[in-house]
Amino acid sequence: MLAGVLLAAFRLSAATLSPADERLLVDIRHTAIRYFWEAAEPTTGLVKDRSTADAIDSRPVASIAATGFGLTGLCIAHNHNVLSRTNVEARVLTTLRYLWNGLHHERGFFYHFVDMRTGERAWKCELSTIDTAILLCGVLTCGEHFSNKEIRQLARDIYHRVDWQWMLVDGKYLSHGWKPETGFLRSTWNEYCELMMLYLLAIGSPTHSIPAATWHNWSRPVVEYEGLRYVSPMAPLFVHQFSHAWFDFRGKRDRHLDYFENSVTATKAHRLFCINLQSRFPHFGEDLWGITASDSAKGYRAWGGPPEVGKIDGTLVPCAAAGSLPFLPRETLHTLHKMRERFGDKIWKRYGFIDAFNPQTDWYNPDVIGIDVGISLLMAENLRTGFVWKTFMKNEEMQRAFTLVGFEAD
Q1: Which residue(s) pair with 61 in the sheet?
Q2: pTM of the prediction?
Q3: Secondary structure (3-state) at 59
Q4: Mean pLDDT of 140-156
Q5: DSSP labels for 339-355?
Q6: Which of 224, 177, 181, 216 lies closest to 199, judged by CA?
Q7: In 10 A of CB 262, how many CB atoms?
Q8: CA-CA distance, 172 to 120, in Å (whole number)?
Q9: 91, 262, 338, 376: which has the highest count of C-beta atoms within 10 A?
Q10: 3-class SS at 222?
Q11: How far apart are CA 252 and CA 4, in angstroms?
Q12: Residue whose C-alpha is closest to residue 316's, from 264, 361, 371, 380
């Protein structure tokens, strides 16, 4: 068992970050924090879903998931003195107070997209379980990082208010969400993906928990690519990343698998898949790779592989590699360096990497997307310091959830 823990620790230290690597990771940190500071509405703390990459634009729609990443980003900013610590703490308090007293919720769950100033529901979107979970991860990180008593109490209250039992369908799976017009969505979280955070939050709740047995209900489909076997759905790469941004699965396994090593293998397979696309898209290869859900020249696409998901057109997505930094440090750092070296200010703007670009068609996305900035920031920080993992996992309820579902040292 100790060997598994040591191996996980070695993977982080074995990255042997060069001065250039350190500079890149710090640049990602600083530009992402700039986004989460500037893209948040000061009176509510809600973070814009997206913005132009050069400056904050006038689009008013916030994402509760981006807000969750943003709250975690404020903890990173506070820890590294990137911004005034007094101002950061005040912004966190503003956000948590608004989540507790201002933003509309149903049994603790929030709408996916809302107006950043008024909190009004946008686009008749759903009350989202997974996006509420991402928000709660940010909330709980704040509760563990800050010593401020009100922050710590608000974090507990916001988490404890969520009625997970209400979202449990037939006692087996959590629903994707709910709409006031039509009720619960038809889709449920019944197959391995980014759902791990959702179930662990629900199982660990001291107020409205769901049975630990639900952890074992969802399927874990095995795929094979180039001799690599791992658990994966037909979905973009981010599903192997998001839960790992906060939950530290290193050196642990349940009765099914080691989820950290599974994401390592998934990233290896994805990299090989991208390299094998070179016959269709000559710019792909060992230097340039990475596709996950992102913008494209024709709108937002949920694409990736293997096997191929969506109509891949040669678009590269920097957060695909950045979101996997702790899994394959050498390979992900290499491609991020190459992207920045080759394309410079075409793809690196005020808030870091643009969301996506296609060298073959000379298309460069004018936008950044909050959740993609967020996963890049958190995984860069976890690679460098492990700060998000160490902070979030102090939460006793999350430790309890790990025990309840049967995690043991690998």
Answers
A1: 115
A2: 0.96
A3: coil
A4: 98
A5: HHHHHGGGTEETTEE-S
A6: 216
A7: 23
A8: 32
A9: 376
A10: strand
A11: 7
A12: 361
* Residue 36 contacts residue 50 (beta carbons within 8 Å): no
Short-list 243, 260, 266, CA closest to 134: 243
Six-digit token string for 158? 């916001």
Classify the C-alpha dihedral 245-247-251-253 as positive or negative.
negative
Domains along the chain with CATH numbers: 2-409 (1.50.10.140)
DSSP-assigned letter for residue 247: S
Rounded CA-CA distance 334/102 in Å is 44
Render pLDDT for 305-360 as a digit per residue (tens, 0 to 9). Answer: 999 999 999 999 999 999 999 999 999 999 999 999 999 999 999 999 999 999 99
Pair 274, 287: CB distance under 8 Å:
no
pLDDT in tens, 46-74: 999 999 999 999 999 999 999 999 999 99
CB 375 within 8 A of CB 245: yes
Q: Which 3 state secondary structure label does DSSP give 177? A: strand
Is there a contact between 100 and 157 (Cβ–Cβ < 8 Å)? yes
- Summarised one tens digit per residue, pLDDT across range 153-177 is 999 999 999 999 999 999 999 999 9
3 state DSSP class of 171: coil
Buried residues in 186-206 as b, exposed as e (16+ CB within 10 A): eebbebbbbbbbbbbbbbbbe
How deeply is 239 buried, as exposed, middle or buried, from its count of CB atoms within 10 A (0-12, 13-18, 19+)?
A: buried
User: How close are the terminal C-alpha atoms of the chain, in Å?
Assistant: 5
Q: Which residue has the tokens 């040591």?
A: 6
Beta carbons within 10 angstroms of residue 241's beta carbon: 26
Band (410; pLDDT cuts 50, 70, 90): confident
What is each CA distance from 189 to 172, 173, 210, 214, in whole angstroms? 10, 6, 14, 10
At residue 63, the 3 state secondary structure works out as strand
Tell me how far apart the alpha carbons of residues 135 and 156 are, in angstroms, rounded to a whole number. 13
- Backbone CA torsion sign across 362, 368, 374, 380: positive
* Tokens found for residue 150: 């009100």
User: Can you tell me the distance from the alpha carbon of 155 to that of 136, in angstroms, rounded to the nearest whole number?
Assistant: 8
Residue that has been written with the tokens 């809600």 in this structure = 46
